[in-house]
Amino acid sequence: MSGANLLKQHWSEARPMLRQQWAQITDEDLTAIDGDFEYLVQTLVARCGYAADRAQREAHVFVARLGASADETAALFAVARETLAPGARKVREGLEELTAGVRILAKEAAARGGERLSATAGVAGERLRDTAGDVKEQGQVALERTENFIRERPFTAIGIAFLAGYLVLGRR
Prior knowledge:
Blueprint: H1 3-9, H2 11-21, H3 27-33, H4 37-48, H5 52-67, H6 70-119, H7 125-152, H8 154-169
């Protein structure tokens, strides 16, 4: 059964689900859509700011869920979980590695900054300004090291960005 037919067939149950999934869709939009798949795609483009291809994909996924039985939905989630698990593990490992690297860099910077500050504790204003400049430079070095860490592990960074996007945008 095509997406257009499924949406028409399940329109009464789809209406509240559409509002739940896309808060930007108004009651007037739902009245205008009235089970028309193409108008749903156009509404997603207009209301949600999606590109046409993304709106098409989102609408197909939504309609596919309408036609899927509970067993099919559970099977789809199982496949998705199985497919995404290795990537999630890699992201988790990358986050742990990034966290460890940042901690090491922060400790090094703090130790260097502490050494500099204790060496200049007895010196007046100008030495203190020099030391503050050194600490600032060390902070910049620590930041550069962090950036290099991320550049050296781009897949880890992509995984972190994916996970952050999922956590921020995927849990509406």
